[in-house]
Amino acid sequence: MTTQPDIEQLLAFDRQHIWHPYSPAVPAQPCHLVESARGVYIQLASGEKLIDGVSSWWAVIHGYNHPHINKAIVDQLHKFSHVMFAGLTHRAAISLTRNLLTLVPANLQHVFYSDSGSVAVEIAMKMALQYWHAMGRPPKCTFATVRSGYHGDTWHAMSVCDPQDGMHTIFNNRLTIQHFADEPHCRFGETWDARDLDSVEALLEQYGAELAAFIIEPIVQGAGGMRFYHPEYLKALAALCSRYEVLLIADEIATGFGRTGRMFACEWAGVQPDIMTVGKGLTGGYVPMAATLASAQVGAVISQNAPGIFIHGPTFMGNPIAAAAANASLELIMDSPIVANVACIEAQLKQGLMPARDNPAVADVRVLGAIGVIEMKEAVDREKLQALFIANGVWARPFGKLVYLMPALIMAPDELEKLIRGVMKGLSAYAP
Ligand code: PMP
């Protein structure tokens, strides 16, 4: 059992030397030390057992320490943990790919594995560039997207994140200039107004000849503001991309594997993207792995024209342990009514969070699938609010004006009840 002085010593070392996400090198507050995690709970060394409202940045879709995924990893570990993927392959990757292809839009036929969502986005963008190069149209080499988007923290992924309100503004003068259309305004579930696409159409009309691809998060703009938009927007965008000969990249890293109430958010619009990225929940949030999927057409064009290969090959591509975890996660998805469970979570989130609208500090409450968002009028004091959540047995991590919940997709009604109660109590005690 770790004693209090031990914990403090570990955290002091951590604070001094370990750089955490979106943090100063030495932050004002230390992190919380996790001892274990099981199901939807995180056990802190300090004694608190917290119900996890974020599923570790939306990735741990089946909960922590799941016996089926644990077993798959251990079994693979006893066979081999890694082999290079050039010239060699393995059963874990084959089985994973077979399962993945049964779930994704049917036109997607080629799967390129990588280690993180941002890298999967870089790969998607490179694929689009190579596609047009192979087509003998190298001038098609820029990208378009919508405002309020988020696609990752690496170089070109940053260039298609929101240029003003995103996290990357200080890098703007060093990023490749891309083209931004207005973000979708018609919300999910509200009346569709075709004028929402005017800005996209104007952009495609003006720049279509130089655009390699249009990249977008389908239906949910996540880290860029947790906005849910109308499926008709995505449908009309796909039609415009096809008319202006611009590839469509659907970034399903946050939305894939059931999060929005469909297996992939593209399904809301019946759209088959040319290229799609997945990550986060791919391995059930166990180990890093992402994938970029390409249509048969994109794969064929890149492969049948000079240089005849796709120029990318990460060292840990298709890592067998990650592939085994991902395959086990997909087996769980295929064997369980996960999408139906998301519908239950959605109903309960709506019922439980909507009363937050009565709080005068709250600007909006919205729910889609297993995503619940309370948008405040002002940016919150995260440390303060997080402490209140912890005092109420909840792990949640608000950002900006947004307090959001993205629980594991297997969260049971009594657990969700507890999570919602903790969040609502924390919020009502919060004064900035
Ligand atoms: N795209 C989207 C839509 C995301 O939500 C994220 C991560 N929040 C990424 C890309 C980047 O993924 P990663 O953090 O694994 O690099």
Automatic annotation (TrEMBL):
Pathway: Cofactor biosynthesis; biotin biosynthesis; 7,8-diaminononanoate from 8-amino-7-oxononanoate (SAM route): step 1/1. Its EC number is 2.6.1.62. The modification N6-(pyridoxal phosphate)lysine is found at K280. Substrate binds at W57, Y150, K280, G313, R397. One of its GO terms (cellular component) is cytoplasm. SUPFAM superfamilies: PLP-dependent transferases. PROSITE patterns: AA_TRANSFER_CLASS_3 (PS00600). Belongs to the class-III pyridoxal-phosphate-dependent aminotransferase family. BioA subfamily. Catalyzes the transfer of the alpha-amino group from S-adenosyl-L-methionine (SAM) to 7-keto-8-aminopelargonic acid (KAPA) to form 7,8-diaminopelargonic acid (DAPA). It is the only aminotransferase known to utilize SAM as an amino donor. This is Adenosylmethionine-8-amino-7-oxononanoate aminotransferase. It comes from Saezia sanguinis.
